Amino acid sequence: KQVDTSRxxxxxxxxxxxxxxxSWLPKYNLKWLKMDVLAGLTVGLTTVPQALAYAEVAGLPVxxxxxxxxxxxxxxxxxxxxxxxxxxxTAIMSLLCSSVVGGEPxxxxxxxxLCGLIQAVMALLxxxxxxxxxxxxxxxxxxxxxAVTIGFGQVKNILGIQGVPQQFFxxxxxxxxxxxxxxIGDVVLGLICLALLVTLMFMKSSLTxxxxxxxxxxxxxxxxxxxxxxxxxxxxxxxLIAFSWETYGNHVFTITGKTTRGLPPFRPPPTSDTxxxxxxxxxxxxxxxxxxxxxxxxxxxxxxxxxxxxxxASQNDYRIDANQELLAIxxxxxxxxxxxxxxxxxxxxxxxxxxxxxxxxxxxxxVTSVIVLLSLAFLMPxxxxxxxxxxxxxxxxxxxxxxxxxxxxxxxxxxKLDLLPFFVTFLMSFWEVQxxxxxxxxxxxxxxxxxxxxxxxxxxxxxxxxSSGLTFPATEYLSHIIHTRALQVSPxxxxxxxxxxxxxxxxxxISELRDLLRQFKLREVHLIxxxxxxxxxxxxxxxxxxxxxLRHNHSMDEALQMEVGPNxxxxxRSY
Length: 575
What we know:
Blueprint: H1 2-18, H2 21-24, H3 30-57, H4 63-67, H5 71-79, E1 87-88, H6 91-101, H7 105-124, H8 136-153, H9 155-159, H10 168-177, H11 184-205, H12 214-228, H13 230-247, E2 273-274, E3 280-281, H14 283-290, H15 293-315, H16 322-336, E4 345-346, H17 348-356, H18 364-379, H19 388-399, H20 406-414, H21 419-428, H22 433-453, E5 461-465, H23 475-487, E6 494-498, H24 507-522, E7 527-530, E8 532-533, H25 536-544, H26 547-550, H27 554-559, E9 562-564, E10 569-572
Parallel strand pairs: 5-6, 6-7
Antiparallel strand pairs: 1-4, 2-3, 8-10, 9-10
Helix pairs in contact: 3-6, 3-13, 3-17, 3-18, 3-19, 5-16, 5-18, 6-7, 6-15, 7-15, 7-16, 8-19, 8-21, 8-22, 11-12, 11-13, 11-19, 15-16, 15-17, 21-22, 23-24
């Protein structure tokens, strides 16, 4: 009976490890429910406008952002180990997706399936440690370059210009080249949206809690709520303005336009594609076209989400299971591919909102997912009037904090060599995003291998062995060797002089050693005699030397302290 109980207990613990929901669901209470619903609603109102905006970054129709935003909430509730993390489309994953699939929805959905399979297999094989080989300079270089690329990529939507290529350098050229074609309505609306978002962001960061008055507390809560949902508020206001102009037949703004209504169908992701001229592209050819992106995107998704989970776990005093997080993200991407989602990961901004609102369990993600599903079911016609300039403003404000220029100064102070992989990643990412990551990892790995193959060796002591007696002809040569190898190097080295083979020594040598001892003393290093045998001839010379004068020399006095053991060996102490 005890054996059966032990087995059941072990099985239950194993099940809890694979389904973390079992560790908190039995303790769920009404207070947790209230906080989770509040947090879920708040994050949901942040998620909807961001998802629409990030679909633009991925080069996909806006509804694909919402298709990608709801599956993570359901899956993570069962498999996630962090109460704060929210999974969904992010700026970085959208940029990576755009660079790999080139704005083709079918390929984006297939990419989600393949990324999820890779991530889930890594979790099952406990390969999360591989993420440790992506160094901090590489991550920072990539995120800074991604922020610049994403942010500048939205300038064309603020200006309302068309026909700008996606490649970064061409995008920069044609954006400036087409400035005369900018639409006044988009520019004015975009700048107003930016100004409002920045103002609300600063208002939220400047809130303090030092006042005890009820009125002040209520006002702070109102400001905090409006500032937290600033993306939704700005997009709704901009949409109302655009709707009012469109109603009177004035096409002042570039709007999102027609979107697919309703929930996405639940079906397996496509394993082939058909080009505009009717050519069928096989599964193998699609995977070949994905190239290195099929390795970069799963890794960056895992890295981003686990870094966020660890940060908030440390902040809120709980622990996460990194491999279980890999499984949660992998299963989310696999199941997301059945509802036309593109690859997702943890969102830092929405996770911060979730934590600040006081979420208690991952169940808050279910409420967020319901908000997204309701938006898909009932609000898609309203999304027709969303100005692209307002979505561009949301994206720019979301990615601006990712440009961390202070990290360069920190790396310069701590280890200048770390700037090499940082700048390699940063600069190559403007060419191709995945090339930047691969190039940064390669440089970082090369530096790591070089440091392993060529470790810094600090020589503090020099060991010299004398093969015969010490007499006056050898004095100058011995002094020269000791000076060049020990005293004239930087920094000076201590010397261990092996005298085990010395059977003869004369007064000239003693005088030279006295001078050497003084030189070693001045440089604060040691000259140590090892294995010096008490031979009658040596003892005779030592006794004949001016020992009285040496006793006043502290270094020599210490050097000639002798311990004569049973075997008559003479040892001098280190001094």
